[in-house]
Design goal:
By secondary structure, this protein is mainly α. It has a domain of about 110 residues. The protein is built from 24 helices and 4 strands. The radius of gyration is 28 Å and the shape is globular. About 45% of the residues are buried. The N terminus and C terminus are likely disordered.
Length: about 625
């Protein structure tokens, strides 16, 4: 085996007075020794991320902020109902059982006031474009409270209460923290603020993807940088991440839990990490039912870490006789290992390297069944969110109760072939870019090219992984995406079988597995070869910029460019409807350009300095 690098993570067992005693000591159980940098510390991610990753994260944040203004209010999946659900909590109307509540009068009024429908049919979705002449001046737009007092048609069914209220509670608390009464804010300000809250939730994704890839690859710059660039390359994520949608909190909590699980797979079975991981799982479960796919993944990660520690310990014990033979002084030599009367040539007593096992091998603690970690993490998971689903099963007899009166969706007839085609192609398209209420869609070329590249890089990571443990880890990470797809398929297929209508198919339902997928893609980019891999961050950035520009060039004129007008007219229309001043919009645009240049410089720096970061990490201190 290759000798461990002298980076502070593995120490030599040399300099012992008695060589044989030192070799035998290497097989003796020792206190847990976790190498520096392998403990999971969520806040340490902020301290140890390199400048390039920070530039990517800030660029991603600025892009999200731009999308939050570019998309007309309420032109995002279920956004009117999500906003109304938040305002229910702001106004103290509670969280009733599905089927017992409709959209509030204020919610209906906001739909009528927003650029959602047309002047003649304000409650029916309109494709636009929406012009400045149609926009009410900002200082004349009604507050939410005024909309509540204004007569309005009866609202439709409020299906959002089928979900746990964590996302809506967080948003309500933020609105209430603003000086004055939250419902005194203009309707467009409320939507704008809630969209920015979603931006803050999704913004850490590049940092989380970098942290997971950096840990699983043992410090690969290319893997971490390319993983961080993956979220930027998905225009639909920019759209969903900048709209009012509970998927955004699920994306954040699932990403945090995924990074914790990566650390568990790499040997961090401490109780503290179990507490962090269980806490993140609980918060994810208190956000949306899809988080359930993370639970078996976390449990299996602990089983894998335990079995690997036992296997490593057996291997180290099996190597003990060979170590004894190698350490015994030959005839005519002294105890120091040199020739008689001399002091030269000590024997190298370092054991063969085990993955993050420390110089004395896995500790006795790591070799015990992980029941304490699973119990602690499970208790926190149930306390913070799992209880919601237990109550559902006990009280209502269903994991997630159905919403009476919920729209059935698109009618396909008894045609399972058409359903299967929509399931597969629709999911892929809506993962990459189907904007608004599926009003504007990316074309075939970027969708198919992007999908092929995702499959290629993840497969390359599996094929060229340095050992089978990494391959198993990657397959476990891939489970999140497949598990989410399976849940979505199960629910939509049940509805289709019953009503011949198809609904509940969307690529955004898979975004809880995005950090896991980005980690594998990053490792695949690093596996392209010693020299080619250095160019990968530049290629990933070029691809991300291309996809974003492609999507914006389709979305922006579709919603804002008037017939016979130009892009300048489109900008004026967007600025007229925006909740913020035109100066704010200019600032966001300038920030995107400046941060794109900074990200380009960071990717060039990776090209120049090389692939692997061998500096001792401080994340475990």
């Amino acid at each position: 085996m290759t000798a461990p690098p002298s980076d502070g993570t593995v120490q030599s067992l040399g300099d012992s007075v008695d060589s044989t005693a030192a070799a035998r000591a290497a097989t003796t159980p020792a206190p847990v020794v976790i190498p520096d940098g392998t403990r999971f510390r969520p806040w340490r991610i902020l301290r140890t991320a390199p400048p390039t990753v920070w530039a990517i994260t800030l660029l991603f944040t600025a892009v999200l902020a731009g999308w939050s203004v570019m998309m007309p209010q309420y032109h995002a999946p279920d956004e009117p109902n999500h906003v109304d659900a938040v305002m229910r909590l702001v106004e103290g109307k509670g969280w009733p059982h599905p089927g017992h509540v409709i959209v509030t009068r204020g919610g209906v009024g906001a739909i009528i006031a927003a650029p959602y429908g047309s002047e003649k049919r304000p409650r029916d979705l309109s494709a636009g474009p929406f012009t400045a002449a149609q926009a009410t001046p900002r200082d004349e737009r009604p507050s939410w409270e005024e909309l509540e007092r204004t007569p309005a048609p009866r609202g439709g069914i409020q299906q959002i209460v089928q979900h746990p209220p964590l996302y809506y509670w967080v948003n309500a608390v933020i609105l209430k923290a603003i000086p004055g009464d939250a419902d005194d804010l203009r309707w467009d300000e409320i939507i704008g603020i809630l969209r920015l809250v979603s931006v803050v939730m999704v913004a850490p994704l590049p940092l989380l993807a970098w942290a997971g890839a950096h840990r699983l690859s043992d410090g690969s710059r290319v893997a971490g940088t390319c993983a961080a660039l993956v979220p930027l390359a998905i225009p639909e994520l920019s759209h969903i991440g900048s709209s009012v949608n509970n998927d955004n909190l699920l994306i954040l909590t699932a990403g945090l839990a995924t990074v914790g699980i990566v650390y568990v797979l790499r040997g961090d079975t401490s109780l503290r990490t179990a507490a962090w991981t269980g806490g993140f799982l609980g918060l994810a479960l208190m956000t949306k039912s899809l988080a359930i796919v993370l639970v078996p993944m976390a449990a299996l990660a602990y089983v894998l870490a335990w079995s690997r520690a036992r296997r490593d310990a057996r291997a180290l014990r099996g190597a003990a006789p060979a170590a004894d033979t190698a350490a015994a002084p030959p005839p005519g030599t002294g105890a120091g290992g040199g020739a008689a009367g001399g002091g030269g040539g000590r024997a190298d007593l370092r054991p063969f390297r085990l993955a993050d096992a420390g110089p004395a091998g896995p500790s006795a603690t790591a070799q015990r069944p992980p029941w304490r970690q699973i119990l602690l993490g499970g208790a926190l998971m149930i306390a913070l969110g799992g209880w919601w689903w237990i109550v559902n099963v006990v009280r209502w007899g269903a994991f997630q109760p159905e919403t009476p009166g919920f729209p059935l969706g698109q009618y396909l007839g008894d045609d399972w072939g058409a359903y299967t085609e929509l399931l597969i192609n629709g999911t892929i398209l809506r993962w990459w870019g189907s904007f608004g209420w599926f009003e504007v869609n990316l074309t075939t070329i970027p969708v198919r090219t992007g999908t092929a590249l995702v499959i290629f890089f993840f497969a390359l990571a599996l094929i060229r992984a340095r050992n089978w443990r990494i391959r198993v880890d990657l397959l476990l990470l891939l489970w999140v995406t497949w598990g989410l797809f399976g849940l979505m398929t199960l629910q939509s297929a049940k509805n289709f079988d019953k009503h011949f209508h198809v609904s509940g198919i969307s690529g955004r339902y898979l975004y809880a597995g995005l950090v896991a997928l980005a980690i594998g893609i990053g490792l695949g980019a690093a596996a392209t070869g010693r020299y080619l891999s250095r160019v990968m961050p530049l290629l990933f950035l070029a691809g991300a910029v291309t996809l974003q520009v492609w999507a914006i060039s389709m979305v922006f004129p579709h919603f804002w460019q008037p017939k016979g007008g130009d892009l300048g007219d489109a900008w004026d229309d967007m600025a007229a409807w925006a909740p913020w001043s035109e100066g704010t919009l200019v600032f966001i645009a300038v920030a995107v350009c400046a941060l794109a240049v900074a990200t380009l410089a960071g990717c060039l720096w990776v090209l120049v300095i090389g692939e692997r970061d061998t500096r001792p990490s401080r994340s475990g201190r």
